[in-house]
């Protein structure tokens, strides 16, 4: 399982519509936003990390917000997140029953959220006030996540492991419970996953399993 930062690093060389300097600026923005947050990162920080003049950043992106919305978010939407979801689906495809599916989903996405918690907080903070970002998130859920997971749930239903429930509702419930489990780490990036987290994770997985099993 790769972090968003690692996926950006792997796909950036293939984005031929970007100049080499634009690639370096955007990749540096992802790294710094992931490590220290959006508010604490300046265009000077990004320029220094990308080893370009600060004027180069402004040449391609008028300000930090433009860099985020015109540069970074489209790449996350069109290139990075689809790769992350495909990797995730591949791992889930290897599960053979409902309990394993739920355990893998909660554990895998919890690790993904933890690894990307600072960048996720940046995107969530922006989504609170940005209709554009809200639309992107909704479309990613409906067009990507639902499309990828629905056949897997149908397979579990057909094999007799899972009740024949509304699959969209089931996916939304699993996603919501997993997000709620990890919310404290998104709010406070310094918070570690302790014994209480492990106990809550077990409770969440058991609750989901017993609510969906035949």
Walk me through the structure:
The chain has 214 residues and is mostly helical. It has 2 domains: 1-72, Homeodomain-like (Arc Repressor Mutant, subunit A); 95-214, Tetracycline Repressor, domain 2. It is 78% helix and 0% strand. It is built from 10 helices and no strands. The chain has helices at 4-11, 20-36, 43-50, 54-60, 64-93, 98-115, 117-127, 131-158, 167-187, 195-212. Helix 2 (20-36) crosses helix 3 (43-50). The chain is elongated and about 60 Å long.
Provide the number of structural domains: 2
Largest sheet features = none
How many individual helices? 10
- What do we call the CATH topology of the largest domain? Tetracycline Repressor, domain 2
CATH architecture of the largest domain: Orthogonal Bundle
Note poorly predicted spans. none
Q: Beta-strand percentage?
A: under 5%
Over the alpha carbons, how many angstroms does the gyration radius reach?
Answer: 19 Å
Percent helix range: over 70%
Structural class: mainly alpha
Q: State the shape.
A: elongated
Average pLDDT confidence is 91
For the record, the CATH class of the largest domain is Mainly Alpha
Order of helices and strands: HHHHHHHHHH
Q: What is the CA–CA distance across the termini?
A: 30 Å
Q: What's the total number of strands?
A: 0
Please outline the helices and strands.
Elements: H1 4-11, H2 20-36, H3 43-50, H4 54-60, H5 64-93, H6 98-115, H7 117-127, H8 131-158, H9 167-187, H10 195-212
GO molecular function: DNA binding
DNA-binding region: 42-61
InterPro entries: DNA-bd_HTH_TetR-type_CS, Homeodomain-like_sf, HTH-type_TetR-like_transc_reg, HTH_TetR, Tet_transcr_reg_TetR-rel_C_sf
């Amino acid at each position: 399982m790769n972090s968003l930062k690692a996926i950006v690093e792997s796909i950036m060389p293939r984005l031929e519509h970007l100049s080499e300097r634009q690639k370096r600026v955007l990749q540096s923005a992802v790294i710094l936003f992931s490590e220290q947050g959006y508010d604490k990162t300046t265009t000077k920080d990004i320029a220094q990390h990308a080893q370009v003049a600060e004027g180069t950043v402004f040449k391609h992106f008028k300000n930090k917000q433009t860099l985020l919305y015109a540069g970074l978010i489209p790449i996350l939407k069109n290139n990075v997140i689809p790769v992350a979801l495909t990797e995730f689906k591949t791992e889930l495809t290897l599960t053979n029953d409902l309990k394993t599916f739920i355990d893998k989903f909660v554990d895998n996405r919890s690790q993904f959220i933890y690894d990307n918690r600072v960048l996720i907080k940046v995107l969530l903070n922006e989504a609170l006030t940005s209709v554009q970002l809200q639309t992107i998130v909704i479309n990613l859920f409906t067009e990507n996540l639902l499309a990828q997971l629905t056949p897997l749930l149908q397979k579990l239903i057909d094999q007799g492991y899972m009740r024949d429930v509304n699959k969209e509702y089931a996916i939304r419930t699993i996603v919501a419970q997993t997000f709620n489990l990890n919310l404290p780490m998104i709010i406070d990036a310094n918070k570690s996953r302790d014994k209480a987290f492990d106990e809550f994770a077990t409770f969440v997985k058991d609750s989901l399993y017993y609510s969906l099993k035949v």
